[in-house]
Amino acid sequence: MFEATDEAWRTELASRESNGITVRLFWSRSTNLVTVVVADVANDDYFELVLDEHEPALDVFYHPFAHAAARGLEFRRSWPEPEVVLDVPSLSQLGPGA
């Protein structure tokens, strides 16, 4: 943590990963801007939030999807479609001992 990135103009302050989604918190010394970057490699999705001066950086870091939605930013959600089972016999149709 607190290491300079390949992009010399930003310093990584924090990083976390869960279920293939990487969230990184950056600060730019030259512009004093704080950004939260979210990358979902599995779905080839990416977005970046530039924080206002009064936005709580750690709150955005830990809840980037909520903050993105509040800004009207659309992103892919690839949750599997619910499985629908048709023609399931009722217990009475299965017979005794079922």
Quickly list its features.
98 residues, alpha+beta, 17% helix
Q: What's the helical proportion of residues?
A: 10-25%
Mean pLDDT: 81
Q: What global shape is seen?
A: elongated
| Oligomer status | single chain
Assign the structural class, choosing from mainly alpha, mainly beta, alpha/beta, alpha+beta, or little secondary structure. alpha+beta
Distance between the first and last residues' Cα: 58 Å
Strand content: 25-35%
Total DSSP E strands: 5
List the helices and strands and how they pair.
Blueprint: E1 3-4, E2 11-18, E3 21-27, E4 34-40, E5 45-50, H1 57-62, H2 64-70, H3 91-94
Antiparallel strand pairs: 1-2, 2-3, 3-4, 4-5
Describe this structure in words.
This protein has one domain. The protein contains three helices and five strands. It has a five-stranded antiparallel beta sheet. The chain starts with a strand and ends with a helix. The N terminus is likely disordered.
Concise structural overview:
The chain has helices at 57-62, 64-70, 91-94, and strands at residues 3-4, 11-18, 21-27, 34-40, 45-50. By secondary structure, it is an alpha+beta fold. The protein has a five-stranded antiparallel beta sheet.
